[in-house]
């Protein structure tokens, strides 16, 4: 099985890959098929991002691929054309075995290999059922959402719009990229700290005790 993934797709979800050694199965970018196209998903257990790649074909089997720092650097490298990751997966091996090359294509269609990972880049393990954390009541308008400072959600790029959850506690995030979807997972319940008095507005209405 041989397929390509655009740098745009991989770089959009790469910041969400887990770096925890205790959960290696989410230490890469999960690639799967959706309606004949490639879908890339990454999560660190706190945030999740997915992007549909309209430029490339889909793999015939789901696979999670590890992208080392040099590979990410090669994907970010400015070029006169397009940059892709070419992944070759042994369709019969268990655990999976895969190789990775980063390819730059100039305006004349000439291909240049800019990086080759010498190791097996396929991650052994089952990637989580990521759709379970996605709020299913997807909004049809911007009503009820609010824009945020990108520094607060730097992983999502230059702009992010937050939508309220559907009871799961997760926040749905969209950007200006129509093919991108993000989710911010809720934190585990802990001690509920009271609202600090030093933050109370002096002109805020006072609560009235019921008689």
For the biggest sheet, the summary is: 8 strands, antiparallel
List the secondary-structure elements in sequence, H or E: EHEEEEHEEEEEEE
* Average pLDDT number: 80
CATH class: Alpha Beta
Number of domains: 1
Low-confidence stretches: 195-201, 204-211
User: Approximately how much helix is present in the residues?
Assistant: under 10%
Summed up, the helix count is: 2
- By secondary-structure content and strand pairing, the structural class works out as mainly beta
Shape: globular
In total, the number of strands is 12
Model description:
This protein has 211 residues and is mainly β. The protein has a single domain (1-211), classed as DNA Polymerase III, subunit A, domain 2 (DNA Polymerase III, Chain A, domain 2), CATH 3.10.150. Helices cover 7% and strands 33% of the residues. It contains two helices and twelve strands; from the N terminus they run E-H-E-E-E-E-H-E-E-E-E-E-E-E. The chain has helices spanning 7-13, 69-76, and strands at residues 2-6, 29-34, 37-43, 47-57, 63-65, 82-89, 98-105, 111-117, 146-147, 161-163, 171-174, 180-184. The strands form two sheets. The protein has an eight-stranded antiparallel beta sheet, with helices on one face. A hairpin with a 7-residue loop joins strand 10 and strand 11. The radius of gyration is 21 Å and the shape is globular. The relative contact order is 0.16. The model is unreliable at 195-201 and 204-211 (pLDDT under 50).
């Amino acid at each position: 099985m041989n397929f390509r993934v655009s740098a745009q797709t991989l770089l959009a979800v790469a910041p969400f890959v887990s770096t925890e050694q205790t959960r290696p199965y989410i230490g890469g970018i999960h690639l799967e098929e959706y309606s004949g196209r490639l879908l890339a998903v990454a999560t660190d257990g706190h945030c999740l991002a997915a992007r549909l790649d309209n430029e490339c074909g889909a793999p015939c089997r789901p696979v999670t691929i590890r992208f080392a720092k040099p590979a990410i650097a090669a994907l970010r490298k400015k070029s006169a054309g397009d940059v892709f990751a070419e992944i070759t997966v042994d369709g019969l091996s268990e655990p999976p075995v895969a190789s990775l090359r980063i390819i730059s294509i100039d305006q004349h269609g000439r291909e240049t290999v800019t990086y080759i990972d010498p190791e097996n880049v396929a991650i052994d393990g089952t990637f989580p059922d990521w759709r379970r954390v996605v709020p299913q009541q997807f909004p049809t308008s911007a009503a009820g959402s609010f824009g945020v400072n990108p520094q607060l959600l730097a992983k999502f790029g230059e702009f992010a719009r937050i939508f309220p959850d559907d009871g799961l506690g997760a926040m749905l995030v969209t950007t200006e990229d129509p093919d991108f979807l993000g989710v911010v997972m809720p934190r585990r319940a802990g001690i509920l700290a009271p609202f600090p008095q030093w933050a109370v507005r002096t002109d805020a209405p006072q609560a009235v005790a019921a008689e």
